[in-house]
Structure formats: C-alpha cells, structure tokens
Amino acid sequence: MFHIENIRISQILTVVPKVFHSLDEEIKLYNYPERRVKKLENNMGYGSHRVVQEGITALDMAYYGMRYLIDNKLLNQEDVDAIIFISVTPDHMVPANSTILHGRLGLKNNVYCYDINQACSGFITGLVNGFSILNSSTAKKVVLITGDTLSKKTSQYDKFSWLLIGDGISITVLEKGSSTIDASFYTQGNNFEYLYIPAGYARKVSTDETRQLKEVEDGNLRSEEQLFIDGLNIYNFSLEMVPKEIEKLLSKSNKSIDNIDLFCFHQPNKFIIKKIADKLNIDYNKIPFNISTAFGNISSATIPTVMAYNFAEKLTSGREFVCMAGFGAGLISATALMDMDKIEYCKIIEYENI
Amino acid sequence: MKDKILEILKDIRPDVDYINSSNYIEDNLLDSFDLAALLGDIEDTFNIKIAGEELNKENFTNIDTIVNLVKKYNG
User: Fold this and answer.
1) B40 and A236 in contact by Cβ < 8 A?
2) Of A219, A334, B47, B71, whose CB count within 10 A is highest?
3) Mean pLDDT of A127-147
C-alpha cells in the first residue's frame, strides 16, 4: 500500500472531441434488434461516445488542454517540473509522448518526462507516481496526463468494443499541499489476454495478415491489431476484485464506506458500476454512472472526468474524502482513498483544431 | 421459475432454443451484453439482487444452472 502525505491536486481539465456518435445511429451497423438496443441503454448505460477526427491523437488533445491552461493563466509553464503521460495510444512507440509534448509547449529543459503504458487503472498509477516525485524532489508542479484515442485501435465492426470506447484525455496538476492518499494495486498478469491488442508490435509485428479484418464472435469483424475484450471475464475480474480491493484498502486505512463523500470509479459501463456499488452498499447519490452514457469508456481519463462532470462544484468548494477505483487492462485493479483539499479548477472542454 | 426465466431469455433472443441448448456461453447464445440484460431482468422479475461475482460461465451454462442460481437468492 502507498501512503503519501503533503500533496494535492490543484487542477483538473478534461479534453474530449466535439464529435459524438450515438448508440441509436451506430447500432445500425450490427443488425442488432431494437429490443436488445433498449436493454443496452438501460443496463449498460450506453448512449453516445466521443470520437476524434482523423489525424487527431491523445497528444494533440493534451497539447490543446495545456495551451488552454497556460493561455488562460491557470498554469505558468515555468512552474512545470515533470510531465507523466499515461496512454496506450501514444503517437509513436519511440519517443515518449511526454517528451514530444514538452517540445511542442517549449518547456524548460530540466522537466522530467516519461510515459507509462496503462489504460483504465492509469490515473491512480499516475497519482502515485506524481505525488512520489513531489515528495522526493524539488519539483513544484507535476503535470499528469491520462487518456487515449482508443477509437484508433478499435474495430467499428466489433460491437463488444466499439460501442464502449471513447476518446479523451485529462490533465491533472499535482502540487505539494495538505491532502493525503492511500493507494493499492492488484495485478493478475496471467489473464492479460482478456483485454489486449494481439499484434502490431514486437511480439507479433504488423503484417498484411494481422491488419486484415476477420469475422470473429457473433458476426463481429476485427483485426489482430485492434482491441479485443473478453466481456464475461472482464465482468468476473471487475466484480470480484474491485469490491475486495476497496474493502481491503478501507480496512488498512481504518475507514469505512460511510466515511467516503464521493466515489469516482472507472466506468466501462453502468452495469459494472452498479453491481460494485450494490456489493459495497454505496449510496447511488455518491457514485455517478453517467460517463459511459455521455463520453464512452475514456480509459485512464475516466476518473478525473467523473470528478469534472459530476463533482466540480463540490471539489472546488471544499475538502472531500474521495474513493477512486480504476480497473481493466493488465489485468489491474487500482484503488485509492484521498482526503482531497479544495481543487482550484475542474472543468471539461471540447477539442478544437489549433 | 424455470418458465419465467425462459421467458426472459426468449425476450432477449427469440430465435434461440434455450431448452435444448446445453452451453449458452460456449455456443455464443448469450454474449456479455445479453448477460447484463439477463441478470437485470432476472433481478427485476424475482425482486432479488444477485452478487456481481456470480456472473460467470458456470452459472449461465444452461437453463438448469440459471434456475439453481436464482433459487439461491429466491429461497
């Protein structure tokens, strides 16, 4: 378990594409009966998801968001001492997105930059990394960027993945302060194939064969270079491990569910979140289910987006005790309890070409 | 109970013969979307809450395994 003190989140800015695709329109691709579509809306909470235009990447959205913060004098670029970029859809495998962003922004040369390959559990990993930097260096501000353009690695003809995913990134500015965080990580690496992209990199390099769309389960079409999700096994993992990990962390931190003001969880769909909430007896008023309806599953940007979309007023008004959970690829379940001091800024904006 | 569950299954996929099929998951007769719908409809129909970790292949293999699962929660 990690226990880190004297830190805080000062700003959260989520950037999402303007374009959204609605379930009603997209479902026509799949010859899916209307009756079942209604069930998808009701049970899974699917409604619409944001998708970037051709040529736009997570890095572009991060640059746009950073420019927004700097140009609006919400962040002084001279104060940035580290950039952590967490994404599974970087512009290139070499070099890291964080260094390219550093160059595009024209930041000073002693900024510490690195990327981490993590998806749904990435935000909590990023917090632990960023706060650890603050507590072990002279760094004043760490910029944590989390998010993806999963649409680029997902087949539109695979309903089990395409309807879920959304594009977007969040910028979270970390500083020294009076907040504390407890965080823990559970990894089940032997089951990595339940959520992965089989080919296109070193293990199985890109070929005509790996790029070819093939009919897979239930009439879906997917290439080996596109995201595969084993839905049932991901349900199993999430519904079994996430509640257990939260209970464990609460116990180690001498806290109970009743001590938590807000629950900010990763949201693959409404069904999983409601089941986790039921298991832990969480009051539905404290745990939003609406991100998968409004944005889609936006990978490691989901947790900060839950905060910005649902709790911006609360988080910018006073102190809140927040429980976070991120779970998915790895397989990893990351859990955090954070006694959060007031945030200065917490907002969602739409990306525009600049 | 069995008839009610079959009715729910038929409502999800009217084209499938759920009585004579022996492995719904392996035979792709229920996908992950359907399972979420099925669980939700069963909970509403029988006024029960089924724990999330019960959502596994074993409990949803065929009509008998589903009936056994519901019985566990429905007395």
Assistant:
1) no
2) A334
3) 97
